[in-house]
## 1
Amino acid sequence: MTVSMSDCPIPADECWNAALARDRTYDGRFVSGVLSTGIYCRPSCPARHPKRENVRFFANGAAARAAGLRACLRCSPDDVSRDERAVLSAIAAIKAAEQPLALAALAEETGYSPAHFQRVFTRATGLSPSAYGRALMAERAAQALSAEGSVTDAIYAAGYSGPSRFYEANQGRLGMAPSAWAAGGKGVAIHWASVETSLGAMLVAATDKGVCRLSFNEGREALEARFPNAKLVEGGEDFSNLLEEVIAAVEAPGDFSHIPLDVKGTVFQEAVWRELRRIPKGETRTYAELAAAVGKPKAVRAAGSANGANHVSVLIPCHRVIRTGGGLGGYAWGLDIKRKLLEKEAK
Protein backbone atom coordinates (compact mmCIF):
# COMPACT_ATOMS: atom_id res chain seq x y z
CA MET A 1 0.00 0.00 0.00
CA THR A 2 1.28 3.45 -0.91
CA VAL A 3 0.43 6.17 1.58
CA SER A 4 1.35 9.82 1.15
CA MET A 5 2.80 11.93 3.96
CA SER A 6 0.21 12.50 6.69
CA ASP A 7 -1.06 15.94 7.74
CA CYS A 8 -0.96 15.24 11.48
CA PRO A 9 -0.33 18.51 13.41
CA ILE A 10 1.44 16.68 16.26
CA PRO A 11 5.11 15.61 15.85
CA ALA A 12 5.45 11.95 14.86
CA ASP A 13 7.64 11.05 17.85
CA GLU A 14 5.05 12.48 20.23
CA CYS A 15 2.29 10.52 18.48
CA TRP A 16 4.29 7.29 18.65
CA ASN A 17 5.01 7.72 22.36
CA ALA A 18 1.32 8.43 23.01
CA ALA A 19 0.33 5.30 21.09
CA LEU A 20 2.86 3.17 22.97
CA ALA A 21 1.44 4.46 26.27
CA ARG A 22 -2.15 4.07 25.00
CA ASP A 23 -2.65 7.59 26.28
CA ARG A 24 -6.38 8.42 26.19
CA THR A 25 -5.65 12.12 26.45
CA TYR A 26 -4.59 12.01 22.79
CA ASP A 27 -7.82 10.39 21.57
CA GLY A 28 -9.44 12.72 19.07
CA ARG A 29 -6.19 14.56 18.41
CA PHE A 30 -4.81 12.11 15.83
CA VAL A 31 -5.18 8.53 14.56
CA SER A 32 -2.49 5.91 13.91
CA GLY A 33 -2.50 4.30 10.47
CA VAL A 34 -0.99 0.80 10.27
CA LEU A 35 0.18 0.19 6.70
CA SER A 36 0.72 -3.54 7.14
CA THR A 37 -2.93 -4.13 8.11
CA GLY A 38 -4.56 -1.21 6.32
CA ILE A 39 -6.41 0.06 9.40
CA TYR A 40 -6.28 3.16 11.58
CA CYS A 41 -6.80 3.35 15.34
CA ARG A 42 -7.19 5.65 18.32
CA PRO A 43 -3.97 6.29 20.27
CA SER A 44 -5.52 4.30 23.16
CA CYS A 45 -6.40 1.26 21.05
CA PRO A 46 -5.74 -1.91 23.13
CA ALA A 47 -4.53 -3.90 20.11
CA ARG A 48 -0.92 -5.11 19.97
CA HIS A 49 1.51 -2.40 18.90
CA PRO A 50 2.68 -2.61 15.27
CA LYS A 51 6.25 -2.03 14.14
CA ARG A 52 7.17 1.64 13.99
CA GLU A 53 8.12 1.51 10.32
CA ASN A 54 4.57 0.40 9.45
CA VAL A 55 2.88 3.36 11.15
CA ARG A 56 1.85 6.75 9.83
CA PHE A 57 -0.07 9.40 11.78
CA PHE A 58 -3.07 11.38 10.55
CA ALA A 59 -4.98 14.38 11.87
CA ASN A 60 -8.29 12.47 11.77
CA GLY A 61 -10.13 9.51 10.34
CA ALA A 62 -11.04 11.35 7.14
CA ALA A 63 -7.36 11.87 6.32
CA ALA A 64 -6.61 8.22 7.04
CA ARG A 65 -9.49 7.04 4.85
CA ALA A 66 -8.31 9.31 2.05
CA ALA A 67 -5.00 7.44 2.25
CA GLY A 68 -6.78 4.12 1.73
CA LEU A 69 -7.06 2.93 5.34
CA ARG A 70 -10.17 1.66 7.16
CA ALA A 71 -11.31 2.15 10.75
CA CYS A 72 -10.35 -0.34 13.45
CA LEU A 73 -13.37 -2.35 14.61
CA ARG A 74 -11.89 -2.80 18.07
CA CYS A 75 -11.40 0.84 19.11
CA SER A 76 -13.86 2.53 16.68
CA PRO A 77 -11.72 5.66 16.15
CA ASP A 78 -14.51 7.54 14.36
CA ASP A 79 -16.97 7.24 17.23
CA VAL A 80 -17.26 10.17 19.60
CA SER A 81 -15.60 9.12 22.86
CA ARG A 82 -17.30 9.38 26.23
CA ASP A 83 -14.97 12.26 27.17
CA GLU A 84 -15.84 14.13 23.99
CA ARG A 85 -19.56 13.63 24.56
CA ALA A 86 -19.19 14.86 28.14
CA VAL A 87 -17.35 18.02 27.08
CA LEU A 88 -19.81 18.79 24.26
CA SER A 89 -22.73 18.24 26.62
CA ALA A 90 -21.19 20.55 29.23
CA ILE A 91 -20.47 23.29 26.69
CA ALA A 92 -24.07 23.13 25.50
CA ALA A 93 -25.31 23.37 29.10
CA ILE A 94 -22.99 26.32 29.87
CA LYS A 95 -24.14 28.19 26.77
CA ALA A 96 -27.82 27.55 27.50
CA ALA A 97 -27.66 28.51 31.18
CA GLU A 98 -28.64 32.01 32.26
CA GLN A 99 -26.34 31.79 35.30
CA PRO A 100 -22.93 30.12 35.82
CA LEU A 101 -23.18 26.37 36.47
CA ALA A 102 -21.40 24.71 39.38
CA LEU A 103 -18.70 22.16 38.59
CA ALA A 104 -20.51 19.53 40.68
CA ALA A 105 -23.68 19.97 38.62
CA LEU A 106 -21.81 19.61 35.32
CA ALA A 107 -19.95 16.55 36.58
CA GLU A 108 -23.15 14.90 37.79
CA GLU A 109 -24.79 15.54 34.43
CA THR A 110 -21.94 13.75 32.62
CA GLY A 111 -21.42 10.95 35.14
CA TYR A 112 -17.90 11.96 36.18
CA SER A 113 -16.45 12.97 39.51
CA PRO A 114 -15.92 16.77 39.70
CA ALA A 115 -12.12 16.45 39.80
CA HIS A 116 -11.97 14.08 36.83
CA PHE A 117 -14.44 16.09 34.78
CA GLN A 118 -12.44 19.26 35.41
CA ARG A 119 -9.34 17.53 33.99
CA VAL A 120 -11.25 16.21 30.97
CA PHE A 121 -12.83 19.59 30.18
CA THR A 122 -9.60 21.57 30.66
CA ARG A 123 -7.67 19.16 28.43
CA ALA A 124 -10.26 19.52 25.66
CA THR A 125 -10.81 23.28 25.75
CA GLY A 126 -7.73 24.77 27.41
CA LEU A 127 -9.95 26.32 30.13
CA SER A 128 -11.60 25.01 33.28
CA PRO A 129 -15.44 24.85 33.16
CA SER A 130 -15.73 27.92 35.39
CA ALA A 131 -13.15 29.87 33.35
CA TYR A 132 -14.93 28.86 30.15
CA GLY A 133 -18.23 30.11 31.57
CA ARG A 134 -16.71 33.41 32.70
CA ALA A 135 -15.02 33.95 29.35
CA LEU A 136 -18.26 33.18 27.52
CA MET A 137 -20.17 35.70 29.64
CA ALA A 138 -17.51 38.35 29.09
CA GLU A 139 -17.57 37.72 25.35
CA ARG A 140 -21.36 38.03 25.27
CA ALA A 141 -21.17 41.24 27.26
CA ALA A 142 -18.55 42.72 24.92
CA GLN A 143 -20.67 41.85 21.89
CA ALA A 144 -23.78 43.35 23.49
CA LEU A 145 -21.91 46.46 24.57
CA SER A 146 -20.70 46.98 21.01
CA ALA A 147 -24.33 47.28 19.86
CA GLU A 148 -26.85 50.01 20.48
CA GLY A 149 -28.76 49.90 23.74
CA SER A 150 -28.42 50.15 27.49
CA VAL A 151 -25.15 49.10 29.12
CA THR A 152 -27.08 47.71 32.09
CA ASP A 153 -29.34 45.68 29.80
CA ALA A 154 -26.28 44.27 28.04
CA ILE A 155 -24.74 43.20 31.35
CA TYR A 156 -27.89 41.36 32.44
CA ALA A 157 -28.34 39.84 28.97
CA ALA A 158 -24.83 38.38 29.18
CA GLY A 159 -25.77 36.45 32.32
CA TYR A 160 -24.34 38.60 35.11
CA SER A 161 -26.48 39.02 38.23
CA GLY A 162 -25.78 42.75 38.22
CA PRO A 163 -23.32 45.46 37.15
CA SER A 164 -21.17 44.96 40.24
CA ARG A 165 -20.55 41.32 39.34
CA PHE A 166 -19.61 42.35 35.81
CA TYR A 167 -17.08 44.92 36.99
CA GLU A 168 -15.68 42.46 39.54
CA ALA A 169 -15.31 39.65 37.00
CA ASN A 170 -13.75 41.86 34.33
CA GLN A 171 -11.50 44.05 36.43
CA GLY A 172 -8.29 44.47 34.45
CA ARG A 173 -9.62 42.41 31.56
CA LEU A 174 -11.59 44.76 29.37
CA GLY A 175 -9.48 47.68 30.55
CA MET A 176 -12.01 50.32 29.57
CA ALA A 177 -15.31 50.74 31.32
CA PRO A 178 -18.18 48.91 29.57
CA SER A 179 -19.83 52.17 28.50
CA ALA A 180 -16.58 53.32 26.91
CA TRP A 181 -16.19 49.99 25.14
CA ALA A 182 -19.67 50.36 23.70
CA ALA A 183 -18.96 53.90 22.51
CA GLY A 184 -15.65 53.38 20.73
CA GLY A 185 -13.54 54.54 23.65
CA LYS A 186 -15.69 57.53 24.60
CA GLY A 187 -14.36 59.16 27.75
CA VAL A 188 -11.11 57.17 27.71
CA ALA A 189 -7.69 58.73 27.26
CA ILE A 190 -5.30 56.74 25.09
CA HIS A 191 -1.71 57.94 25.12
CA TRP A 192 0.34 57.17 22.07
CA ALA A 193 3.61 57.80 20.31
CA SER A 194 5.34 56.87 17.07
CA VAL A 195 9.06 56.18 17.49
CA GLU A 196 11.87 55.02 15.26
CA THR A 197 13.37 51.61 16.04
CA SER A 198 15.78 49.25 14.34
CA LEU A 199 12.68 47.63 12.83
CA GLY A 200 11.25 50.89 11.49
CA ALA A 201 8.58 53.28 12.76
CA MET A 202 6.68 51.75 15.68
CA LEU A 203 3.30 52.88 17.02
CA VAL A 204 2.67 52.32 20.73
CA ALA A 205 -0.62 53.21 22.44
CA ALA A 206 -1.87 52.54 25.96
CA THR A 207 -4.83 53.15 28.24
CA ASP A 208 -4.33 53.50 31.96
CA LYS A 209 -4.61 49.68 32.12
CA GLY A 210 -1.85 48.83 29.68
CA VAL A 211 -0.67 48.69 26.07
CA CYS A 212 -3.62 48.40 23.67
CA ARG A 213 -1.75 48.75 20.38
CA LEU A 214 1.77 48.00 19.18
CA SER A 215 2.32 47.99 15.44
CA PHE A 216 4.76 49.05 12.75
CA ASN A 217 4.44 51.64 10.00
CA GLU A 218 1.11 52.91 11.32
CA GLY A 219 0.07 56.28 12.65
CA ARG A 220 -2.67 58.04 14.55
CA GLU A 221 -5.25 57.09 11.93
CA ALA A 222 -5.07 53.45 13.03
CA LEU A 223 -6.08 54.44 16.56
CA GLU A 224 -8.84 56.73 15.29
CA ALA A 225 -10.32 53.81 13.35
CA ARG A 226 -10.26 51.47 16.38
CA PHE A 227 -11.25 54.03 19.03
CA PRO A 228 -13.07 56.79 17.13
CA ASN A 229 -14.44 58.43 20.28
CA ALA A 230 -11.42 58.13 22.56
CA LYS A 231 -9.32 61.09 23.60
CA LEU A 232 -5.99 60.52 21.87
CA VAL A 233 -3.09 62.12 23.70
CA GLU A 234 0.36 62.13 22.13
CA GLY A 235 3.04 61.40 24.73
CA GLY A 236 2.65 62.05 28.44
CA GLU A 237 4.93 61.74 31.47
CA ASP A 238 3.57 58.45 32.81
CA PHE A 239 3.27 57.03 29.31
CA SER A 240 6.92 57.84 28.55
CA ASN A 241 8.07 55.35 31.20
CA LEU A 242 5.93 52.61 29.70
CA LEU A 243 7.11 53.56 26.23
CA GLU A 244 10.75 53.10 27.27
CA GLU A 245 9.97 49.59 28.52
CA VAL A 246 8.25 48.72 25.26
CA ILE A 247 11.16 50.03 23.16
CA ALA A 248 13.57 47.98 25.26
CA ALA A 249 11.43 44.88 24.72
CA VAL A 250 11.65 45.38 20.97
CA GLU A 251 15.33 46.30 20.73
CA ALA A 252 16.62 43.74 23.24
CA PRO A 253 13.98 41.00 23.50
CA GLY A 254 13.80 39.30 26.87
CA ASP A 255 11.16 38.78 29.54
CA PHE A 256 8.51 41.44 29.02
CA SER A 257 5.69 39.70 30.88
CA HIS A 258 5.70 42.56 33.41
CA ILE A 259 4.49 45.05 30.78
CA PRO A 260 0.71 45.44 31.27
CA LEU A 261 -1.65 44.89 28.35
CA ASP A 262 -5.18 46.07 27.64
CA VAL A 263 -6.45 43.70 24.95
CA LYS A 264 -9.74 41.96 24.19
CA GLY A 265 -10.58 39.06 21.92
CA THR A 266 -12.86 36.05 21.72
CA VAL A 267 -12.40 33.13 24.12
CA PHE A 268 -10.38 31.27 21.48
CA GLN A 269 -8.27 34.28 20.52
CA GLU A 270 -7.34 34.99 24.12
CA ALA A 271 -6.40 31.33 24.64
CA VAL A 272 -4.10 31.56 21.60
CA TRP A 273 -2.57 34.82 22.85
CA ARG A 274 -1.84 33.24 26.25
CA GLU A 275 -0.01 30.39 24.52
CA LEU A 276 1.97 32.86 22.41
CA ARG A 277 3.24 34.55 25.58
CA ARG A 278 4.40 31.14 26.86
CA ILE A 279 6.75 30.55 23.90
CA PRO A 280 10.29 31.16 25.24
CA LYS A 281 12.51 33.75 23.63
CA GLY A 282 14.62 32.20 20.88
CA GLU A 283 12.11 29.42 20.19
CA THR A 284 9.35 29.05 17.62
CA ARG A 285 6.18 26.99 17.26
CA THR A 286 4.27 25.93 14.18
CA TYR A 287 0.66 26.91 13.62
CA ALA A 288 -0.26 23.26 14.18
CA GLU A 289 1.60 23.16 17.48
CA LEU A 290 -0.13 26.38 18.54
CA ALA A 291 -3.54 24.87 17.80
CA ALA A 292 -2.65 21.73 19.74
CA ALA A 293 -1.41 23.80 22.69
CA VAL A 294 -4.85 25.39 23.16
CA GLY A 295 -6.52 21.99 22.97
CA LYS A 296 -7.83 22.41 19.42
CA PRO A 297 -5.42 20.43 17.20
CA LYS A 298 -7.78 20.52 14.23
CA ALA A 299 -8.21 24.29 14.35
CA VAL A 300 -4.90 25.15 12.66
CA ARG A 301 -6.43 27.75 10.36
CA ALA A 302 -8.37 29.34 13.23
CA ALA A 303 -5.19 29.49 15.31
CA GLY A 304 -3.51 31.30 12.43
CA SER A 305 -6.38 33.79 12.26
CA ALA A 306 -6.21 34.40 16.03
CA ASN A 307 -2.47 34.86 15.68
CA GLY A 308 -3.05 37.52 13.03
CA ALA A 309 -5.73 39.28 15.13
CA ASN A 310 -3.13 40.18 17.75
CA HIS A 311 -3.20 43.93 18.52
CA VAL A 312 0.11 44.17 20.37
CA SER A 313 2.94 42.76 18.30
CA VAL A 314 6.12 41.63 20.06
CA LEU A 315 4.56 41.78 23.55
CA ILE A 316 2.24 39.02 22.39
CA PRO A 317 4.93 37.38 20.23
CA CYS A 318 2.98 36.20 17.20
CA HIS A 319 6.24 36.43 15.23
CA ARG A 320 7.38 33.23 16.99
CA VAL A 321 4.89 31.14 15.00
CA ILE A 322 6.07 29.65 11.71
CA ARG A 323 4.90 27.12 9.17
CA THR A 324 5.50 23.40 9.47
CA GLY A 325 8.74 22.79 7.61
CA GLY A 326 10.39 26.02 8.72
CA GLY A 327 8.83 28.62 6.43
CA LEU A 328 8.20 31.99 8.05
CA GLY A 329 4.50 32.04 7.19
CA GLY A 330 2.72 35.38 7.34
CA TYR A 331 3.16 38.53 9.40
CA ALA A 332 0.98 41.63 9.38
CA TRP A 333 3.96 44.00 9.41
CA GLY A 334 6.03 42.22 6.75
CA LEU A 335 8.31 39.21 6.75
CA ASP A 336 11.42 41.40 6.93
CA ILE A 337 10.39 42.62 10.41
CA LYS A 338 9.45 39.09 11.47
CA ARG A 339 12.83 37.78 10.34
CA LYS A 340 14.68 40.54 12.20
CA LEU A 341 12.74 39.88 15.41
CA LEU A 342 13.57 36.17 15.28
CA GLU A 343 17.23 36.96 14.57
CA LYS A 344 17.35 39.31 17.58
CA GLU A 345 15.88 36.67 19.86
CA ALA A 346 18.14 33.92 18.58
CA LYS A 347 21.28 35.79 19.66
Note: The two ends are 46 Å apart (CA to CA).
## 2
Amino acid sequence: MQKIILYFSLFLLAVGVTGCGYNTIQKNDEGVIAAWGDVEASYQRRADLIPNLVETVKGYAAHEKETLTAITEARSQVGKLTLGSEALNNPEAFAKFQAAQGGLSSALSRLMVVMERYPDLKADQNFRDLQHQLEGTENRINVARVRYNEAVQVFNTSIRSFPGNLTNKFLLKLPRREPFKAEAGAEKAPSVKF
Protein backbone atom coordinates (compact mmCIF):
# COMPACT_ATOMS: atom_id res chain seq x y z
CA MET A 1 0.00 0.00 0.00
CA GLN A 2 2.89 2.35 0.81
CA LYS A 3 4.38 1.75 -2.63
CA ILE A 4 1.08 2.63 -4.28
CA ILE A 5 0.89 5.90 -2.32
CA LEU A 6 4.54 6.67 -3.18
CA TYR A 7 4.00 5.95 -6.89
CA PHE A 8 0.78 7.94 -6.93
CA SER A 9 2.55 10.87 -5.20
CA LEU A 10 5.40 10.74 -7.72
CA PHE A 11 2.86 10.63 -10.54
CA LEU A 12 1.05 13.69 -9.17
CA LEU A 13 4.36 15.50 -8.72
CA ALA A 14 5.39 14.72 -12.31
CA VAL A 15 2.04 15.90 -13.65
CA GLY A 16 2.23 19.02 -11.48
CA VAL A 17 5.74 19.91 -12.64
CA THR A 18 4.99 19.41 -16.32
CA GLY A 19 1.81 21.45 -16.05
CA CYS A 20 3.19 24.28 -13.92
CA GLY A 21 3.94 26.56 -16.84
CA TYR A 22 7.64 27.02 -15.98
CA ASN A 23 8.90 26.14 -19.47
CA THR A 24 6.14 28.13 -21.14
CA ILE A 25 6.98 31.23 -19.11
CA GLN A 26 10.67 30.84 -19.91
CA LYS A 27 9.90 30.42 -23.63
CA ASN A 28 7.64 33.47 -23.60
CA ASP A 29 10.26 35.52 -21.73
CA GLU A 30 12.84 34.62 -24.36
CA GLY A 31 10.31 35.60 -27.04
CA VAL A 32 9.98 39.07 -25.49
CA ILE A 33 13.77 39.46 -25.32
CA ALA A 34 14.16 38.38 -28.96
CA ALA A 35 11.38 40.73 -30.10
CA TRP A 36 13.04 43.55 -28.16
CA GLY A 37 16.30 42.81 -30.00
CA ASP A 38 14.45 43.22 -33.30
CA VAL A 39 13.10 46.59 -32.13
CA GLU A 40 16.58 47.75 -31.15
CA ALA A 41 18.05 46.57 -34.46
CA SER A 42 15.40 48.49 -36.41
CA TYR A 43 16.03 51.65 -34.40
CA GLN A 44 19.78 51.22 -34.91
CA ARG A 45 19.28 50.98 -38.67
CA ARG A 46 17.39 54.27 -38.58
CA ALA A 47 20.08 55.91 -36.46
CA ASP A 48 22.73 54.72 -38.93
CA LEU A 49 20.86 56.25 -41.89
CA ILE A 50 20.40 59.68 -40.32
CA PRO A 51 23.97 61.04 -40.69
CA ASN A 52 23.93 60.25 -44.43
CA LEU A 53 20.54 61.89 -44.80
CA VAL A 54 21.64 65.01 -42.93
CA GLU A 55 24.82 65.32 -45.01
CA THR A 56 22.87 64.98 -48.26
CA VAL A 57 20.37 67.62 -47.17
CA LYS A 58 23.09 70.03 -46.00
CA GLY A 59 24.29 70.55 -49.56
CA TYR A 60 20.87 71.69 -50.74
CA ALA A 61 19.34 73.35 -47.72
CA ALA A 62 22.13 74.89 -45.70
CA HIS A 63 19.81 77.58 -44.32
CA GLU A 64 17.57 74.89 -42.74
CA LYS A 65 20.14 74.58 -40.00
CA GLU A 66 17.55 74.54 -37.21
CA THR A 67 15.86 71.41 -38.54
CA LEU A 68 19.16 69.65 -39.22
CA THR A 69 20.39 70.53 -35.73
CA ALA A 70 17.17 69.18 -34.20
CA ILE A 71 17.66 65.86 -35.99
CA THR A 72 21.30 65.62 -34.95
CA GLU A 73 20.41 66.40 -31.33
CA ALA A 74 17.53 63.92 -31.31
CA ARG A 75 19.81 61.22 -32.71
CA SER A 76 22.37 62.08 -30.04
CA GLN A 77 19.74 61.68 -27.31
CA VAL A 78 18.81 58.29 -28.71
CA GLY A 79 22.48 57.30 -28.83
CA LYS A 80 22.91 58.09 -25.15
CA LEU A 81 20.26 55.54 -24.22
CA THR A 82 21.90 52.15 -24.43
CA LEU A 83 19.21 49.71 -23.42
CA GLY A 84 19.29 45.99 -23.43
CA SER A 85 16.77 43.42 -22.40
CA GLU A 86 17.26 44.50 -18.76
CA ALA A 87 15.40 47.72 -19.60
CA LEU A 88 12.28 45.65 -20.17
CA ASN A 89 12.05 45.29 -16.39
CA ASN A 90 12.46 49.04 -15.81
CA PRO A 91 9.36 51.04 -16.82
CA GLU A 92 11.13 54.40 -16.35
CA ALA A 93 14.03 53.45 -18.65
CA PHE A 94 11.58 52.02 -21.15
CA ALA A 95 9.57 55.27 -21.12
CA LYS A 96 12.74 57.35 -21.63
CA PHE A 97 13.74 55.15 -24.56
CA GLN A 98 10.30 55.48 -26.11
CA ALA A 99 10.31 59.28 -25.61
CA ALA A 100 13.75 59.64 -27.19
CA GLN A 101 12.71 57.57 -30.20
CA GLY A 102 9.52 59.64 -30.47
CA GLY A 103 11.59 62.83 -30.49
CA LEU A 104 13.72 61.47 -33.31
CA SER A 105 10.63 60.44 -35.28
CA SER A 106 9.21 63.93 -34.84
CA ALA A 107 12.44 65.58 -36.02
CA LEU A 108 12.57 63.33 -39.08
CA SER A 109 8.96 64.20 -39.91
CA ARG A 110 9.82 67.90 -39.76
CA LEU A 111 12.76 67.29 -42.09
CA MET A 112 10.55 65.57 -44.64
CA VAL A 113 8.11 68.51 -44.55
CA VAL A 114 10.97 71.01 -45.00
CA MET A 115 12.37 69.02 -47.92
CA GLU A 116 9.18 69.58 -49.90
CA ARG A 117 10.46 73.13 -50.48
CA TYR A 118 13.53 71.91 -52.38
CA PRO A 119 12.73 70.36 -55.76
CA ASP A 120 16.43 69.91 -56.58
CA LEU A 121 16.91 67.93 -53.40
CA LYS A 122 13.88 65.77 -54.08
CA ALA A 123 15.33 65.04 -57.53
CA ASP A 124 18.75 64.04 -56.11
CA GLN A 125 19.23 60.28 -56.44
CA ASN A 126 21.16 59.96 -53.17
CA PHE A 127 18.41 61.74 -51.27
CA ARG A 128 15.70 59.63 -52.88
CA ASP A 129 17.59 56.45 -52.05
CA LEU A 130 18.06 57.53 -48.45
CA GLN A 131 14.43 58.59 -48.20
CA HIS A 132 13.27 55.17 -49.47
CA GLN A 133 15.61 53.40 -47.06
CA LEU A 134 14.30 55.53 -44.22
CA GLU A 135 10.68 54.82 -45.17
CA GLY A 136 11.47 51.10 -45.28
CA THR A 137 13.18 51.35 -41.91
CA GLU A 138 10.20 53.13 -40.39
CA ASN A 139 8.04 50.25 -41.64
CA ARG A 140 10.47 47.75 -40.09
CA ILE A 141 10.31 49.65 -36.81
CA ASN A 142 6.53 49.47 -36.85
CA VAL A 143 6.55 45.74 -37.60
CA ALA A 144 9.14 45.11 -34.87
CA ARG A 145 7.10 47.10 -32.35
CA VAL A 146 3.93 45.19 -33.24
CA ARG A 147 5.75 41.86 -32.86
CA TYR A 148 7.22 43.01 -29.56
CA ASN A 149 3.76 43.97 -28.28
CA GLU A 150 2.44 40.55 -29.33
CA ALA A 151 5.30 38.81 -27.47
CA VAL A 152 4.62 40.98 -24.41
CA GLN A 153 0.94 40.03 -24.51
CA VAL A 154 1.75 36.31 -24.67
CA PHE A 155 4.29 36.65 -21.84
CA ASN A 156 2.06 38.74 -19.60
CA THR A 157 -0.81 36.30 -20.14
CA SER A 158 1.43 33.36 -19.23
CA ILE A 159 2.48 34.91 -15.90
CA ARG A 160 -1.06 35.98 -15.01
CA SER A 161 -3.02 32.82 -15.83
CA PHE A 162 -3.16 29.60 -13.85
CA PRO A 163 -0.88 27.68 -13.25
CA GLY A 164 1.80 30.04 -14.59
CA ASN A 165 0.80 32.73 -12.13
CA LEU A 166 1.70 30.43 -9.22
CA THR A 167 4.96 29.36 -10.82
CA ASN A 168 5.91 32.98 -11.45
CA LYS A 169 4.85 34.12 -7.98
CA PHE A 170 6.76 31.44 -6.09
CA LEU A 171 9.66 30.56 -8.40
CA LEU A 172 10.46 33.04 -11.15
CA LYS A 173 9.16 36.39 -9.86
CA LEU A 174 9.35 37.94 -13.34
CA PRO A 175 7.69 41.36 -13.67
CA ARG A 176 4.94 42.19 -16.12
CA ARG A 177 6.37 43.70 -19.32
CA GLU A 178 5.26 47.03 -20.77
CA PRO A 179 4.17 47.21 -24.40
CA PHE A 180 4.91 50.12 -26.70
CA LYS A 181 2.21 52.74 -26.48
CA ALA A 182 1.28 55.66 -28.67
CA GLU A 183 3.23 58.83 -27.96
CA ALA A 184 1.56 61.68 -26.14
CA GLY A 185 -0.49 63.71 -28.58
CA ALA A 186 -0.64 60.92 -31.17
CA GLU A 187 -4.43 61.02 -31.12
CA LYS A 188 -4.32 64.37 -32.95
CA ALA A 189 -3.25 64.61 -36.56
CA PRO A 190 -0.20 66.85 -36.99
CA SER A 191 -0.72 70.15 -38.75
CA VAL A 192 1.53 70.75 -41.73
CA LYS A 193 2.13 74.31 -42.90
CA PHE A 194 4.07 75.37 -45.97
Note: The mean pLDDT is 83.
